[in-house]
Design brief:
With 189 residues, this protein is of the alpha/beta class. Helix content is 21%, strand content 29%. The protein is built from 4 helices and 20 strands. The strands form 4 sheets. It has a 7-stranded mixed β-sheet, with no helix packed on it. The longest helix has 18 residues.
């Protein structure tokens, strides 16, 4: 099993493996190219976005600057919006559901490190996927940690650090993020 296979399987791997370094270098070049297209047409920006990410749904928008590790583990469904300065460390899958709005400076992190200092000193790491449901609102500066799932219609307050799963229709805020309330469905005004 290659180090990339180990990474994609969520097992311990070494990030300085030549294949992964080459993948990260390609992503760095792609991200720089994408971030330089700020004044390009929406169609041109979308075409470049599709080149670098696993899936880009209709109407998905990613404002520059944007940063990621590899890109090939990121799926954006229809109507997803990522505001300026988002960072996605995608050593594992990141799936963002349709209609989700992500504020500026949000970090979505799948990369994790061993708790044992001896293992960590061997430069091993792993990844755990992050899943964000449909119609979620994540406020600016929030941090989503490895392995977290956020349910449909949830809200994450600005600046929150999400360490645990967030149920559908719940609002969380703080560091660590804690439930503020469960929302009831209300008709639009």
């Amino acid at each position: 099993m290659t180090q990339k296979d180990r990474m994609l399987a969520g097992e311990l791997y070494t990030a300085d493996d030549p294949e992964l370094v080459a993948d990260a270098d390609r992503a760095t070049v792609w991200v720089a190219r994408y971030n330089a297209t700020f004044s390009e047409s929406a169609a041109d920006r979308r075409a470049i976005l599709i080149e670098g990410l696993r899936h880009v749904g209709l109407g998905a928008v990613v404002r520059s600057p944007f940063y990621c590790d590899y890109g090939y583990n990121i799926s954006l469904e229809d109507g997803v919006f990522l505001n300026f300065g988002c960072v996605i460390l995608d050593v594992a899958k990141v799936t963002i559901g349709a209609g989700t709005l992500i504020g500026p400076g949000v970090q979505i992190l799948t990369a994790d490190h061993p708790r044992d200092p001896i293992v960590r000193a061997r430069m091993l790491e792993s990844g755990r996927p992050v899943t964000i449901g449909r119609n979620v609102w994540i406020g600016g500066g929030a941090i989503i940690l490895p392995g977290v799932a956020i349910g449909d219609n949830a809200i994450v307050g600005a600046g929150s650090v999400v360490t645990r799963n967030v149920p559908s229709k719940h609002t969380v805020a703080g560091n660590p993020a804690r439930a503020i309330c469960a929302r009831m469905d209300r008709p639009a005004p």
